[in-house]
Design brief:
The complex is a heterodimer. By secondary structure, chain A is mostly helical. Chain A has seven helices and no strands. Chain A has one domain (5-144). The termini of chain A are close together. Chain B folds into two domains: 3-36; 48-424, no CATH class. Classes of the chains: A mainly alpha, B mainly alpha.
Chain lengths: 150, 428
């Protein structure tokens, strides 16, 4: 299967959307972390579990920027734009894995009854880097498809 | 006439170009070309080596590494703490007060306290092994080289600097691969600024004391590693422009193909590096714990001990940074090995009857001073073994003196800046 211009455009739209989502929620997390409470103003912070953390927010913005950087070349059917999608997917997965590992280790602390974990709830560890990853699943299938690299 | 002028360029670059020309000629003659395959390595390198995105991507991966190191290892630290506390409790029954104090406060309060940090050290080495085994760390060196070369520095320096994340000792020895004498000297001088694993227990203790098991603690640790890299680049630039003037030699490296790291392989690499800490614990750190216990218990008890006196003599020097006598004293002992800061705090606070060291630390200094303390431990004098290897590799005490002196001054300046900026921002 050839990486055609029309397919490139579809992947560009997808990549752009995912990139924008990461950048948007990254900014919300970053501004919340600086106490600017943008998330609260939009009434989304609590609804979608966005803790204020400027650094975690900055990491989401960088990840989003990687997706967005590939949109131009993807939209003209250039398969090299897939590089940005692939690395974006990789960064999203690293962040997802990290947050999952954090949730798992906190669960361990809670189960063992250590003082620092008394009152821990799984929702404490839900953050955009975790749930945004589900939007990346189609990207994994596209980026890893061997056909494009033949 | 120099070889460079006769050839009309750098011999190393010309040789590399010629080598690749020969390879191309052989391939042209021997290969029947089909359509060029676009490999996964080509695909990933387009972004990992990207002139704009390369460094931000590196920052994300390093941030994730240190979050993993600190936050994920936290319950494992608690498990080790409970086990050591239980064993230490068995010695509480010793009737002789001095002997009981030796075991409970000296061995278990000091050495035992450092052992808690085995967990983050192993976690960090595991994460770094994954990055290395995947082929990414070589790209990180390449990406940083571009930045460093622009600043007039030698790119090959970055590999010994990366090795410095593990231990400065082999990292300084690895500078032997750098041909230019000035390039090599600069790399040796700035290498102790790279955050070796011995500093990690200090970061984990201080960050944990102020930011608990939140994401900020991991970020503070990551910030220290980043600070080390930035300072190393700035100091190298300063040396290049002042005492070690000259042009950097070009940097040529072949990048390995990417591969999926195996769990087994990464665990082996983690063990090989982490076991060094365990060996240190059985030798240097055990000796340090005994000396510290002695100095903190004699001649007339904890409140009139040698450590107390030493700490109070030094306290005025460190007062502008917000360090109390305990922190000031701990910095002196860390000359043997950086982990001894933690051991010293363990013994000093235990002798003073404050068992929850993190909480006691948070009560005695401000978070800004805590951050300044982390930076101070990162920057000030290298450990004894590193000083020895600097002397061995430079063949001169002069460069040892330069390293110790500039690091002390830099540590103090950076500490003051952190306290100043933090206070101005209202964080004190």
């Amino acid at each position: 299967m050839v990486f055609s211009k029309s397919l490139g455009k579809a992947v560009a739209v997808y990549s752009g959307l995912v990139g924008l989502l990461y950048v948007f929620f990254g900014f919300v997390e970053l501004l919340d972390g600086f106490g600017l409470a943008m998330g609260s103003l939009l009434n989304i912070s609590e609804a979608v579990f966005i803790p204020g953390d400027p650094f975690a927010g900055a990491m989401l913005i960088i990840t989003g920027a990687v997706y967005l950087a590939g949109v131009d070349s993807l939209s003209v059917g250039n398969r090299e734009g897939l590089s940005f999608l692939a690395v974006g997917v990789l960064l999203s997965t690293v962040l997802f894995g990290l947050y999952l590992a954090i949730m798992g280790s906190n669960f361990l602390g809670y189960v063992l009854g250590f003082e620092d974990w008394v009152g821990w709830a799984w929702t404490d560890d839900v953050r955009p880097g975790l749930w945004l990853w589900f939007s990346v699943i189609p990207g994994i299938l596209v980026a890893l498809k061997k056909d494009w690299r033949e | 006439m120099s070889v460079k002028r006769r050839l009309g360029g750098d011999p190393e670059i010309i040789l590399a170009e010629r080598r690749y020309e020969v390879i191309s000629e052989i391939l042209r003659a021997a290969l029947v070309k089909g359509a060029k395959k676009w490999t996964m390595t080509d695909m990933l390198d387009k972004v990992f080596l990207h002139k704009v995105l390369g460094i931000p991507v590196f920052i994300v991966l390093m941030w994730a590494t240190f979050q993993f190191t600190f936050v994920v290892s936290a319950p494992f630290m608690s498990i080790i703490e409970v086990v050591i506390g239980w064993i230490g409790g068995l010695f509480e029954a010793i009737p002789n007060e001095v002997l009981r104090s030796f075991f409970v406060d000296g061995i278990f309060g000091g050495l035992g306290f450092v052992m808690v940090f085995v967990a983050p050290i192993f976690f960090m080495f595991f994460a770094l092994s994954i990055l290395e085994d995947s082929g990414y760390l070589a790209r990180a060196a390449f990406v940083m080289d571009r930045l460093m070369f622009k600043l007039g520095l030698h790119g090959r320096s970055f590999i010994p600097m990366l090795l410095g994340f593990g231990c400065n000792l082999p990292a300084i020895m690895a500078t032997r691969s750098i041909e230019g004498e000035k390039d090599r000297l600069i790399t040796i001088l700035v290498n102790p600024l790279m955050s070796c694993s011995a500093r990690l227990p200090v970061y984990v203790l201080v960050a944990g004391a102020f930011w608990g098991s939140t994401m900020y603690a991991g970020t503070a640790i990551w910030g220290m590693y980043l600070l080390g890299i930035v300072l190393a680049i700035l100091m190298a630039l300063l040396f290049r422009r002042t005492i070690l003037k000259g042009e950097p030699a070009p940097f040529i490296m072949e990048l390995p193909l990417y591969k999926v790291p195996t769990f087994h392989g990464s665990v082996i690499h983690m063990w090989e590096r982490g076991v060094v800490f365990l060996k240190k614990a059985g030798t240097y750190l055990l000796a340090g714990a005994i000396i510290l216990w002695f100095l903190s218990s004699f001649p007339w008890g904890a409140e009139q001990s040698y450590t107390y006196m030493l700490g109070h003599v030094l306290e005025p020097v460190f007062r502008p940074l917000g360090f109390d006598w305990r922190l000031s004293a701990s910095l002196i002992f860390a000359f043997m090995a950086k982990e001894i800061v933690v051991e010293a705090l363990g013994v000093i606070y235990a002798m003073a009857g404050e068992t929850a060291i993190g909480a006691a630390l948070a009560a005695s200094i401000t978070p800004v001073s805590g951050l300044a303390f982390m930076a101070f431990v990162l920057i000030y004098v290298p450990c004894l073994a590193t000083i020895g290897v600097i002397k061995q590799e430079t063949g001169s005490w002069k460069w040892v003196g330069v390293t110790v002196l500039y690091e002390l001054i830099l540590a103090y300046i950076v500490g003051l800046m952190i306290v100043g900026v933090g206070s101005a921002m209202g964080f004190s």
